[in-house]
Specification:
The complex is a heterodimer of chains A (257) and B (384).
Chain A: E1 3-6, E2 9-12, E3 16-17, E4 19-22, E5 28-33, E6 39-40, E7 47-51, E8 57-59, E9 69-75, E10 78-79, E11 81-82, H1 89-95, E12 102-108, E13 114-120, E14 124-133, E15 136-144, E16 149-159, E17 166-174, E18 176-182, H2 184-188, E19 194-203, E20 206-211, H3 220-223, E21 229-231, E22 234-240, E23 246-252
Parallel strand pairs in A: 3-11, 14-20
Antiparallel strand pairs in A: 1-2, 4-5, 5-6, 7-8, 7-9, 9-10, 9-13, 12-13, 14-15, 15-18, 16-17, 16-19, 17-18, 19-20, 19-23, 21-22, 22-23
Chain B: E1 2-9, H1 15-27, E2 32-40, E3 54-60, H2 72-79, H3 98-110, E4 115-118, H4 121-130, E5 136-141, H5 150-159, E6 165-168, H6 171-181, E7 187-190, E8 209-213, H7 222-235, E9 240-244, H8 250-259, E10 266-270, H9 275-281, E11 284-287, H10 296-303, E12 308-311, H11 316-320, E13 327-330, H12 335-347, H13 349-364, H14 368-383
Parallel strand pairs in B: 1-2, 1-4, 2-3, 4-5, 5-6, 6-7, 8-9, 8-11, 9-10, 11-12, 12-13
Helix pairs in contact in B: 1-14, 2-3, 4-5, 7-12, 10-13
The chains are: A mainly beta (257), B alpha/beta (384).
Chain lengths: 257, 384
């Protein structure tokens, strides 16, 4: 075992793990196939992480305090090959249920080895659904990496330039958020051909950004297309930005377009 | 034994290239194997080819490429002219020219090898016409029998009897070719594509994701998959569909998806180099094709422990999937039936886990070592 091929590359993997995941306490849980048919995690002491950019090394599976970036996981000096896609939508959602400043995820690289990605996080609302119909942009979501909130809230659209923010009613129920904003007031003052509005969930004077990050889909800007609506000549379409935040683009459509 | 594969362009990406490379790589463990690419447009192949396989090309399309003396002038003159040897109905006709005719004919007339395996109709016909008599000629058909248009079909009928064997991907194709070739000397044998024996990621059946993969073209039936999935999300709004691939229908499909208000549930993921890694994140693979010459992604899905819900379209799916055992076959072209099949697979979690386990066993039958053995048995019969 140990030599695999994927996508034109060759893996010189060492031991092969059955499972490689980060649990809620930021501990890397690696399970090995066991000749007896069970699984054992008894040999985690030989696991070393290596930062892909800086080369910094970290021994063991307790991950608190890891620097942001990609960490390659090896066992006795060889990268760990893994069967585990290292990916669970529900797992990412429940991991984000706790307030955190750092997010650590395990993933299987395209060459079949186990790696971790570490990034700094701030509380935001993970978007679970967007409605773009009937003159409203509506959002449902879940608080990620922050404390739950209870009570009325607002969905606020903040223009990147010029105009005043526009808000609409919403509510937090623990982790869940829902809110909507009417697009007509956003389009009313439109003078430039194109304007961009960032969306926030607002409660008690604090604004949480809206974004979709609790999955493995990169570059949502090009992969997700929301329905467009029109206010006169102005086309209004929600979109994901380069950082997967939810925003709305307003464009004055010229004749014939 | 020396084995030569002749392929249109080994430097691109696609099912035929992948299947050819995987087979060549496996055979190279025991034989002297080369892949001859009619065209070359980049320096290196996109897909992986084993280190023991030699790769060469006949017509270099890279910028600045020069044809060596004494063919320089001839190449210049003929490159601008249409091919006269390849039938205009060959799907890749536009790639060929009078110059590629010239080079290909010369190559076939002088090629000394034990077995020549050609990989598409146009090349199969060329081998039948020009390969040396001592060379065992094997034509592989990656397209299904009825996919050929009448004109090229006439050429197939005329020239295939010169070949030593036609290898089909499905038994349905085997029957059709056998009927066409009558009782002639050409053998017809079914050998499906194989999966290289590498470790694979495995689905934990934990993500509510349905995956579809393949070029975004009408034959893949994604328009119908979107309609079916719109029914699925009415009942199971927490399930997502991921479609991998790109193609000329892409924009149209995105518009359809928006129109069906599937933006929260369907993502067009673009192409991936690691389809197995993506499959392993999913729980169900959907096949909505109008026809599938074979259905390699079905076997890939199986090998990652992902059961398949597929239209019972011609020809591959029904020969690979045992409905109720490792997947579900639903009546072809029936959108409601596809939606029902997906919902059945979604809701029967226990059944899905069982089918996922069975799928792994089915995939083992397509292990490359098993498939290569079948090829070697065919060589032994034909060369002997």
């Amino acid at each position: 075992m140990g030599t695999g091929t994927q996508g034109g590359a060759v893996v010189a993997g060492g031991r092969r793990a059955v499972t490689g995941r980060v649990d809620g306490d930021d501990v890397l849980r690696v399970e090995w196939p066991d000749p007896g048919g069970g699984r054992s995690g008894a040999e985690d002491g030989d696991i070393v992480l290596r930062h892909a950019e800086t080369g910094e090394e970290h021994a063991g599976t307790a991950l608190a305090g890891l620097a942001p970036g990609i960490w390659v996981v090896s066992y006795r000096g060889e990268p760990i090959a893994t069967d585990d896609p290292g990916f669970s939508l529900d797992g990412l959602m429940s991991y984000a249920a706790m307030p955190r400043e750092r997010e650590i995820r395990a993933f299987r690289t395209s060459v079949g080895t186990l790696a971790l990605t570490v990034r700094e996080v701030r509380p935001y609302v993970e978007v679970t659904g967007v409605v773009s119909d009937d003159g409203v942009v509506g959002v449902t979501g879940v608080i990620a990496y922050g404390e739950p909130i209870e009570g009325p809230a607002r969905l606020v659209a903040v223009p990147r330039k010029g105009a005043e923010p526009v808000g609409g009613p919403g509510a937090f129920h623990g982790r869940s958020f829902e809110g909507g904003v009417r697009i007509e007031p956003m389009a009313e003052g439109q003078r430039r051909r194109r304007t961009f509005w960032d969306l926030y969930a607002e409660a008690g004077g604090a604004r949480l950004p809206l974004a979709a990050r609790l999955d493995d889909v990169t570059d949502k800007k090009t992969k997700v297309r929301f329905p467009a609506q029109h206010v006169g000549q102005v086309r209004v379409r929600p979109y994901y930005t380069d950082t997967d935040s939810l925003a709305v683009a307003l464009t004055i459509e010229e004749e014939g377009t | 034994m020396k084995i030569s594969f002749l392929i249109l362009n080994a430097y691109g990406m696609g099912g035929t290239i992948r299947a050819t490379f995987d087979l060549a790589t496996e055979l190279s463990l025991r034989h002297d194997v080369e892949v001859i690419s009619v065209f070359q447009h980049v320096d290196r192949p996109f897909l992986r080819l084993g280190p023991r396989v030699r790769l060469r090309s006949l017509v270099d399309l890279r910028e600045g490429a020069r044809v060596r003396w004494p063919y320089t002038k001839r190449a210049e003159r003929l490159s601008g002219q249409e091919s006269a040897l390849i039938h205009p109905e060959e799907r890749a006709y536009a790639s060929f020219s009078a110059w590629s005719d010239d080079v290909l004919r010369r190559e076939l007339r002088r090629l000394r090898t034990d077995v020549l395996i050609t990989t598409r109709a146009g090349l199969n016909i060329m081998a039948a016409r020009f390969a040396r008599r001592k060379v065992v000629t094997i034509a592989q058909e990656h397209l299904h029998f009825e996919a050929h248009k009448p004109g090229i079909f006439q050429e197939i009928r005329e020239w295939y009897p010169n070949l030593d064997a036609v290898i089909t991907l499905t038994e349905a194709d085997e029957r059709d070719y056998r009927a066409m070739l009558g009782g002639g000397r050409t053998r017809v044998i079914t050998i499906g594509n194989g999966l290289p024996a590498t470790p694979r990621p495995r689905s934990r059946q934990e993500n509510r994701i349905v995956l579809a993969a393949g070029r975004l073209v009408p034959v893949k039936g994604y328009d119908r998959l979107l309609k079916a999935f719109a029914q699925v999300v009415q009942k199971r709004p927490d399930w997502k569909l991921r479609i991998y691939g790109e193609g000329r229908s892409g924009d149209k499909l995105v518009r359809q998806s928006v129109k069906l208000r599937l933006h929260n549930n369907v993502t067009f993921m673009g192409p991936t180099e690691d389809i197995e890694g993506e499959l392993a994140k999913a729980s169900i693979h959907a096949v909505s094709s109008r026809f599938e010459g074979f259905g390699m992604t079905i076997i890939e899905a199986f090998s990652c422990g992902v059961p398949v819900v597929s239209f019972d379209c011609p020809r591959g799916p029904r020969e690979i999937i045992t409905s109720g055992h490792d997947g579900l076959l639903v009546p072809a072209d029936d959108v409601d039936a596809l939606a029902e099949g997906l919902l059945r697979m979604i809701d029967d979690e226990e059944g899905r886990h069982r089918m996922a386990r069975n799928a792994l066993e089915t995939a083992a039958r397509y292990d490359m070592s098993v498939v290569a053995e079948r090829w070697e048995r065919a060589f032994a019969e034909l060369v002997g």
